[in-house]
Amino acid sequence: MLGYDREDLVCGRLRWTDLTPPEWFDLDIRRWIPELKTTGSLQPFEKEYFRKDGGRIPVLIGVASFQRVGTKGVAFVLDLTERKRAEAEARESERDTAKCRRIWRMRTALQRWASSRPRSPMK
Q1: Contact (CB, 8 A) for 22 and 28
Q2: How far apart are CA 106 and CA 101, in angstroms?
Q3: DSSP string, 49-118
Q4: Distance CA 60, CA 46 (A)
Q5: Taking the domains of the chain in order of start, what are their residue ranges?
Q6: Residue 111: what pLDDT?
Q7: pLDDT digits over 40-66, tens only?
Q8: How many beta carbons lie within 10 A of that of residue 101, not counting itself?
């Protein structure tokens, strides 16, 4: 998903602070870390991570500590790339549909206007 391998993980080259884009880091520090320390878990939330190649990937993350105040726990990270792509396509489709409806209404209004005007006889 991120392009890292097991060696990157084992050697300690894979840290969430390095994977987190700057605009997400502040939210992590102000909200997610204190919530994890207080409750011992985090409800799933969306954010982005950097891939090894520098690109970004939208993810869904959930976390739970094994002990309320502990450094060990479990987390999941799901790739939301396909979901985000499908949502973007749905928004585009909605925009296209709305545009077609506006064009259809204009066409209908123009036809009504044209049919209500008196016709002059052809000479």
Answers
A1: no
A2: 9
A3: EE-TTS-EEEEEEEEEESSTT-S-EEEEEEE-HHHHHHHHHHHHHHHHHHHHHHHHHHHHHHHHHHHHSP
A4: 4
A5: 6-79, 82-115
A6: 87
A7: 888 999 999 999 898 999 999 999 988
A8: 10
Q: Both ends of the chain: CA-CA distance in Å?
A: 75
Tokens (6 digits) for 81: 């790339």
Tell me the chain's radius of gyration from C-alpha atoms: 27
* Selected residue with higher pLDDT from 1 and 77: 77
Please, what's the b/e burial string for 54-84 (b: 16 or more CB within 10 A of its CB; e: otherwise)? eeebbbebebebeeeeeeeeeeebeebeeee
Structure tokens at 70: 């502990």
Contact 63, 43 (CB under 8 A): no
Can you read off the two tokens belonging to residue 25?
Answer: 């880091």
The lowest-confidence range among 11-15, 40-44, 99-103 is 11-15
Q: What is the pLDDT of residue 48?
A: 93
